[in-house]
Amino acid sequence: MKAILLDSIERDLPVAHRDRTLLRWLSTVDHKEIGKLYLMAALLFFVVGGVEALLMRTQLAVANNHLLGPDAYNQIFTMHGVTMIFFVLMPALLGLTVYIVPLMIGANEMAFPRLNAFSFWISFSGGLLLYFSFAAGGAPNAGWFNYAPLNQENYSSSPGINYYAMGLLLGGIGSVTTAINIIVTILKMRVKGMSLKRLPLFVWMALVNGFLIIAAMPSLNAALSMLLLDRLMEAHFFNTTAGGSALLWQHLFWLFGHPEVYILILPAFGIYSEVFQVFSQKKIYGYVFVAASTVAIGLLSFGVWAHHMFAAGLGNTVNSFFGASSMLIGIPTGIKIFNWIGTMYGGRIRLTTSMLFAIAFLIEFTIGGLSGIEFSIVPLDWQLTDSYFVVAHLHYVLLGGSLFGLFSALFYWFPKITGRMLNETLGKWFFWLFTVGFNLTFLLQHFLGLMGMPRRVYTYQDIPYYTILNLLSTAGAYLMGIAVIILIYNIFKTIKAAPMENKDPWNAFTLEWYAGSPPNEKNFIDVPVVTSRRPFWDLKNPENRDYD
Amino acid sequence: MNRLMMKLTIGSEAIFFLCLIVSYLYFWRSGNFQKEVAAHLHIKTTGLFTILLLCSSFTFWKAEQNHQRENFTRVKAWLIATILLGVIFLAGQGHEYYNLIKENVLINKNEFGSNFYALTGFHGLHVLIGLVVLIIVLLLTLNGFLRNKSSSVLSTVGIYWHFVDVVWIFVFTTIYVLPYIL
Amino acid sequence: MLSLWENILKVSPDIPLQSVLRSSSQQAEQINRVGNYFYLAAGFILLIVAAFTAFVLYKFGEKKNNGDKKTLSSKWEIAMIGIPSFLVAFFLYLNIKTINTVEPAVNGAAPEAIITAHQWWWEARYPSSNVVTANEIHLPVGKKILLKLLASDVIHDWWIPQFGNKMDMVPAQENYLWLDIKQPGDYYGICSEFCGAQHAHMRIKVIAQTQEDYNNWLKQHQQAATTTTFNSGAQLFMTKTCGNCHRINGTAANGSVGPDLTHLGSRETLLAGLLENNIQNLESWIKHPQQIKPGANMPDFHLDDTTTKAISDYLFSLK
Q1: Is position A258 within any domain?
Q2: Over 90: is that where the pLDDT of A58 sits?
Q3: Nearest Cβ partner of A64 from C8, C76, C77?
Q4: How many CB atoms lie within 10 A of CB C291?
Q5: What is the CATH number of the domain that holds B129?
Q6: Are A379 and C12 within 8 A, CB to CB?
Q7: Which chain C residues touch A452 with a CB distance below 8 Å?
Q8: CA distance linking residue B73 with residue A528, whole number of Å
Q9: Could you give phi then psi for residue A521, rounded to 5 degrees?
């Protein structure tokens, strides 16, 4: 098995300062350092968003509580949503993609290293700008989807919503430029032999995701631009007292918003696809189905947006159409769950922390997915939308899906990124505390929804069972908080430990594990010839190699 | 790689303009756009400037051609022509805005004002960005760079510049031509 | 002196358990029928996924399998697309059928009540009898009525969990909701679209009555306010400019910014379900509204105690 030299791909890479200084971090264009910057920034915002969640849950622990007044609470719930979606999940998933994808395809860099750096710094600035609003008169307080006309100047006169718009515009630019970078990298810089049919599934998901981002973000950008024109120049887009349309905001927002949730989950699907294979020591069951269903989801995701508007009065024909399309999109998602379990079937399953999160994901995401399908049945949506049932649903898919994916990826790729393995005992404590806390918090919220508790309320009256359910839900949140502290302790403790010798601790299959742990500045000196979907496996097991 | 990058970029921007156009059409009836356009816009004048902008696509194409043939003097000439045509287009738009403001058609006046200025304004902004890039390309060419005929710079910039023109065709049709058809 | 918050805790009205699963309207019944099928199917799917996962974890643990690489046949893939597709088809049929049963076309039907949502209270008008009231909404049982839903400022949403479906109130738009309440009684709901500072305290109370009781209520509410013009509270109500925002039928007070107060004394709760309607609460509210419902559109008027008491007595007397 001859290894090929990457002479045709070697380029003069822009070189940042080599010494370990602040300047190096600020000026780097190395995709690995930028990936780490994304992950570190995401961790910072995760802690902030988590504190916001704990504040909310503490306020809601008992009826008629007055820890936070309505003004403070409304800012906090808005910022919690915006932070977690735009400044935790998206940057973390994109940062991981930017780190791993070039390594997985045998490339030394992303297609546009400087653009990569620009993307990070502009999205990080967006986050900082958003948080500056606290100091500038108040954070945005109309919810993360910021409906009109509540988002107009006359109903929300504090500058918070202006910061919301500007922060998200900056973040949006960063996402689109990263997506373009990822697509070009995948299409143009794969090592010889790696046809599209041999792409690791993480890379497939990244490719489809890139297209989703560049197609969905413009709708949000248009809405935000129009909103700023409304607020700063008294334009009439969404101002209903002057002929504007409240529903136009919703259409533009959800045209972005629905693909956005797939943008948040596809990279996680990619992570799980890798993790299930390695920790079952078996190749993926149904590669074509997983890849094809991803493309199907990507396309369908643009045809379901109005299921967020079933109660807005669009009429039965429109509602029926979107109900149908939303039900349909459940099928390609369900197939994947089956494929992942099917991958474990017949394998040798190792229950590492990474794998535990993946297995938990199967159950959590099925619950979240089923409650999602419930909402596609329009009369049930009419019953339960805007209640805590939705809050339960969205957290099951976003935490149980995306966040668990990030946790799984963290434990899986930590040795690759830092050359050290996170402590598995601490990892398992983290996993169990977090999973128990997570289910305690959000499973009960299904019942709160069924019992009529609406979302986005800063307090509630003493209605039977509300207090006990909310109190237990809050307890779960604190469990998650403690779990995260254990995680952070694990990370810091591990980074200071000595590096390990073995660059391939998990006996993995894909090319990133062929590079060093951590990789050299230029990733690879040589790369094995790719003749299947598991090139590193083939290299290690030439008598037992794959043929597809 | 550069060309693919630019194609993806204009793909994204196309959807952005699509959203603005959809918004414009959304308010067509309630904002009485037919009447507003008849009262305030002049298809002939703007049509003339449209033709000039479209010519700039032609002149840029000539610049690309000459770059392939390594006639760098001609490249500079055609680049200058492109830039001039772009500037004239923007000047025309500015003049149109000036007249509209005198007639009290403002962004905060009504639906038509908001949508008209948003749609044409964002397009003008993209023209301006294109002009900045073109000037940089011209300066590079004047200073002896971009001599390699396999360089992708001009073709990449070209994709963007042609895109700006194509968007204008859609915008022009939506705003100026549609009232005559409907 | 008890703090205001403790006051609220003490006299906060009791609300019984609200559950969407208690079908108190025909619409809720139809929705819950679909719901029951769904929960059955969903429970089944979750069970299958959990069981299959548990099975593979048990059977293919690290120490168990010795490299004998079994794998699932691809035929299962077809089943995994086929079975969900069948379920989707079944529920799609139920989906569309129930949409049209619960919310058939309005076709110009006359609404029983027109409910306009404000930040943070509900206005109700009954077109057939010209009755105007606020927050506590009486409706007849046993017949299919139409509610017309409007919004005066931002988007709100009308939801009574036991009646099933909700509907947004969107400014500059007319939405409709069909309702066929089964039994008389008190039903509680809440605004279900985030609408600003006091969204949490925009509760709805529907008092469903037999047709006879309902007609009596309408008749009684058609009457103008019964009060003498020499009542000091009534005079203060006008001089302190309350009439600029509030209407009391039969007096010069004709504002429409705030709730109609013509029959305030007949209501069980105040402030969209926030407080029990009694003299102390009414006084507290009039004295310092911004401390009771911060952000509400009623400003602090800094009235002295005598004025507050007089106005409260007056309003409380408007049965």
Answers
A1: yes
A2: yes
A3: C8
A4: 13
A5: 1.20.120.80
A6: no
A7: 18-20, 159, 161, 188-190
A8: 48
A9: -55, -40
CB A355 within 8 A of CB A409: no
Indicate whether A78 belongs to any domain: yes
Is A315 within the bounds of a domain?
A: yes
User: d(Cα B141, Cα B149) in Å, to the nearest integer?
Assistant: 12
B55-105 tens-digit pLDDT: 999 999 999 999 999 999 999 999 999 999 999 999 999 999 999 999 999
Residues A82-106 pLDDT 10s:
999 999 999 999 999 999 999 999 9
SS3 state of residue A174: helix
Domain count along chain A = 1
Q: What does the block give as tokens for C174?
A: 């007319």
Structural domain span for residue B152: 2-181
Q: Which of A45-49, A331-335, B166-170, C88-92 has the lowest mean pLDDT?
A: A331-335
Taking contacts as CB-CB distances below 8 angstroms, the residues of chain B near A255 are 19
What are the b/e assignments for C166-181, b being 16+ CB within 10 Å? bbbbbbbbebebbbbb
Residue A85 lies in a domain: yes
In this structure, the dihedral spanned by the alpha carbons of residues C16, C21, C22 and C26, taken in order and rounded to 10 degrees, is: 140
- Model confidence band, residue C14 (pLDDT cutoffs 50, 70, 90): confident
Q: What is the pLDDT of residues B17-33, one digit of tens each?
A: 999 999 999 999 999 99
Is residue A14 over pLDDT 80?
Answer: no
| CA A177/CA A180 separation, integer angstroms | 5
- The one-letter code for the residue type at A296 is A
Predicted local confidence at residue A131, as pLDDT: 98
Give exposure, A454-482, as e/b (b: 16+ Cβ within 10 Å).
Answer: bbbbbbbbebeebbebbeebbebbbbbbe
Domain CATH number, residue A191: 1.20.210.10
A114–B contact, CB cutoff 8 A: no
Tally of CB atoms within 10 A around B80:
17
